[in-house]
Amino acid sequence: MADAERAFLTNLLHTVGAQPVNYPDDYRQPPENTLRKVPVLPLPVPPPPARAAPAASSSANVTLTFKSLKPAATYSLSVSPADSIATVKTALAGQSGAPPADAQRLLLRGKALADAKLLKEYDVKDGDTLTLAIRPGVQWDPNAPSPSSPDASMEVPKLTVQQPRPQKPATETLALSAGDTKRKGHGRTPSIVLSPSPTNEDAAPAEIDLTLDTSENTFKEPPSAFQTTLATPEFWDRLYSFLRTEFAADTDSQRAFEDFLAASKSSLSASEIARIRDHVGVVGMAGT
Questions:
Q1: Contact 221, 260 (CB under 8 A)
Q2: Which residues of 202-221 are buried (b: 16+ CB within 10 A; e: fewer)?
Q3: Residue 55 has what pLDDT?
Q4: What is the secondary structure of the chain as a DSSP string?
Q5: Which stretches of sequence are listed as region Disordered (predicted)?
């Protein structure tokens, strides 16, 4: 075989071998290629175990005996093992002559039973005897009538009514005034007078009357010659004209004018300062 034929066949085999093999739906593998079955030995299989009989229900009620030493008494009660110790105490408190549930203390073989635990957690059996005692520090009188007795239910709670304390006569006057009477253009804030009327021991609480005092007969000190001249807009106009002749820059003259005006604000009212600025034509910071 020539080398060219050998190379052609080799290339053809590689190409055909790389193609996927698709089998039809009814394809069956030849019997000689089928795996042999694993032989199964005929071993005897044991029968399934019989189902055990259901155990007795733990929720069946048990009868317990509660024995009290002080006072000497015996109680018999049918309870469920699934009940809590607090539930058992509540049921025991319903027995005649039994202490209330919050005063009881149950013991089993010298061990105190916790209220939050269940009765079956202590391996209590039917017919067992539990010791009933009173909690330390709890005062309980077995001869006292219980709240469920007819005599106790007929008791009416007593109501205590406290008489009101007598009030002493009082006269209070609160006067609120504001404003500077020395400044021109400022008015006086009306005063508020609180004058409750006197009361006696049997009278109801006094009502406070609010009266508004708007009287204008308040003494006002007449303005002095200094204040009168200082409040005249023409005075500040002449002052500003003088400052403009002394300073070369207009900003410097306005700065000097503001310094003089700021030094005199304690003797001028807001309306007077506004009239001065309107007349002179110099507006300060924020228009004031």
A1: no
A2: eeeeeeeeeeeeeeeeeeee
A3: 59
A4: --HHHHHHHHHHHHHHHTSPP---TT----GGGSPPPPP---PPPPPPPPPPPPPPPTTS-EEEEEEETTTTEEEEEEE-TTSBHHHHHHHHHTSTTPPPGGGEEEEETTEEPPTTSBGGGGT--TT-EEEEEEPTT----TTSPPTTSHHHHT-------PPPPPPPP-----------TTSTT--PPPEEEE-PPP--SSSPPPPPPEEEE-------PPPPHHHHHHT-HHHHHHHHHHHHHH-SSHHHHHHHHHHHHHHTGGGS-HHHHHHHHHHHT---GGG-
A5: 136-203
pLDDT digit string, tens, across residues 232-245:
888 888 988 898 89
Q: What are phi and psi of 66, to 5 degrees?
A: -110, 120
Buried b (16+ CB within 10 A) or exposed e, 26-42: eeeeeeeeeeeeeeeee
Among residues 134, 160, 188, which one ends one of the domains? 134
Q: What is the CATH number of the domain that holds 107?
A: 3.10.20.90
Query: pTM here?
Result: 0.34
Identify whether residues 214 and 253 lie together within a single domain. Answer: no
pLDDT, one tens digit per residue, over 130-189 is 998 888 888 777 776 655 444 444 444 444 445 555 555 544 433 334 444 444 444 555
